[in-house]
Structure formats: C-alpha cells, structure tokens
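Support reply, case 0932

Customer input (verbatim):
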Amino acid sequence: MDKNNDNKIPDDIFEEADTKKKLVMGRIRKAQPEPKEPLAKTPVRKASKKKKNAAVVPPSPIARSPAAFSPVAKKIQEEKVNDVLKHLKSPVPRPEEKKSKDKKGKKTITETEEEELTADRMGYKFIEHIGFIETGPSLNTYYLTHLLNMAQPMETHDAFTRNTFKNRNPDVFCIDKTRVKLMDPNIEYYIHANHIKFDRLTRTYIATQHPLPGTLNDFWAMIADQKVELIVSLTNSKTASFPIYYPNKPSTFRNFGQFFVYCNSVIPPKTKYGFTEYKFDFVAQSEKEEKRTIRLYHYPHWVKNTVPASTKVVLEIVKKLRKKRSNAPVVVQCETGVNQSAEVIYVDAMCSMLDSGVEANFDSLFRQMRQQKSQVMTQRLHFLHSIATVLDFIKVLS
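Our regenerated output:
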C-alpha cells in the first residue's frame, strides 16, 4: 500500500466538518434578532404609493399602544367577537302584543304595556340593524372601516394647548367647542372635560380624565358649576399620579379650595361585578351655600386597554344610573376620558333610548360622540364590548 495514501485525510471528514459548521452558523442566525425592514416596505408606504393624493389619517396614539396589540389583548378581542356572534345567532324574538279585556270584553292595551312594547320593538330593531351586518367579524370590520378613523371635526383646542400641565395625555385633545367652561367669564378656568349630548336623549354627560394632583380643585369646581349629582369613576387610585379626589371613609371630609365634601356612607359591592357606592354631602362655600347630595360609583378593576370579564359590570352601572334620575350631566371619569368613559356613556345612551322606546342607531350615536370628544373609543374592543352589552340589556328588557 502506498505510504502517501496512508497519510491522506478522507474526504468524508471535510464533509462532516462542513455540515457541523452550517449547523452552528444556523443556530447563530436564529439567536440574532431579525433585521428591521426598511420603511419603504411597511404597509403604510405601500398604501401611499397606490394613492399618492389620498389623505392618510394617522391612527390614534392610544389605539397604537403596545398593550392593545399584545397576544393577550388579541385573544380577548377574539373572545368578545365570539360573544357578539353568539348574540347574533340567537336574537331576541319579535315581541307579541299583550292585550287585556275591558268591561265589554274587547281587547285593549294599557299605556304601560304600550310603552313596554315600543321599547321591545326598538330593541328588536337594534338587533336587526346588528344582524344586517351579519356576523361578529363583520361588525369588527365595520368598526375598522367606518368608525375607527372617521374624520375628526376641524375644531380648535386652544385652551388645551395653553394648559399643557393640566392634561394627562398630550395627544388627547380637549375640543374648545364642547369643553366644560366655568359660567363666570371673569374667572380663568380650564379642565380637560367635554360635554357629550345625543339627539333625542334628555340625559347629558361629561367625559373627563382622572384629576391630576394639581387639578383636584378644578374638578370640584366643575361639579359645583354643573350641578352634578352622579359621578362614575373607572380608575384605581394606587399611585400619586392618580390621587383619590374624595373622602373614601364614612364620617370623614375633605376641603378642595372653597368646596367641602363630607362622606355620608360607603356601600361595598354586592357582587363580583359590582362597584362601591359613595354618598357625599357637598357644599360650595360661597355667598349662597347650597348643600346637595352627590353619589359616586367606583369600579377600580377595569384595566387599561381591556374590557371587563362580563358585560354585567357596565350593565350594573347603567342600571344604577337609570334609578337615579338627574337633570344635571352625569360625569364619567377614566384615565384619559376617551375609552372606558366612552364605553359607559355609549352603552348608557343606547340603553336609555331603547328603554324609552326611541331608536338607538349605534353608528349615528358613535359619530355624535366622536364629534364632541376627540379620539373617543379608539380601540375596537371597547366598541364590540359595547354592542355585546346592549344586546344583553335587550334580553333583560324583553
């Protein structure tokens, strides 16, 4: 045998080494983060190339928040879409007219029964409107196509710009036309809060942010000036940036400038979907001191960028608001005043209209709300949950 051949390295050793090298390099590539695609390849740029002259409306910074697109949030969204779909598959049947007999034996209908039937018909009409859009995913598409990026009114927000230190979020504007103003024109006053009114509905609302440490007096000045009797709070005051703006223990009081707030009673929640109810005596220490009762309903478990586990949470709030009638605006407060607050206002408005036998067009009401409060309900999850809640209300109503 040739000695040179004895010292020659076999070819299969090179092949084996090459294979190991490829495996190692492959693992290294997997461990490294994938390079970001150039901006020219993003969907936004592609859309702009197709229509060069088309006006692109940027999504709300709230809607683009990381939590809104997390896997958990997406899973919850799909679950809520399925909830709406279940309601659509089993709609409330058309109500039958209930008639009673008069003395002559003829069938008549009382005024109360007529009102109930009218409310039932409006509820059925609402279901038909939702059913016309066919399914839950289609309702989701309807929101993304027609409502999410609807054109904002060209309204000024000068007071918002002048008072940046009184705003929680610099991207959530406070429209000048609908912002809450103090009736005394001689007093310089600003609070990040907007009036919201709907056609054919007597009840009005104020959507506002959670008061900042430096705006507590402003909040109670608004309560005094607007004669408010009902407040809904949807935030958890666990940090200094979200201060408790009322006395939260019975027989205690707090002063906010010239405003005196005394806590009469605290009623804890009766169910896991319930809220804490506070009853206050409120006095504005002015020339004409007037004492009035204010009720505050506090639900602290509504996490940002999500919805409650059950529609019963919002329904319980709506139920309480229906019992406590007031001619003054209902103040609904969340972190920024645009998502949780908007859902409660949106649902309560639709339920109030249906209960009164008035048609509740969810599209029209949404547009009215968006025109009065900038960037309300910028997350589809809140919209879908609102519809599911109203459908549950109709089932209870019927």
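We compared this against your earlier run and they match. Two observations from our side: The longest strand covers residues 259-267. The domain at 136-397 is CATH 3.90.190.10 (Protein-Tyrosine Phosphatase; Chain A). Please reopen the case if you see a mismatch on your end.
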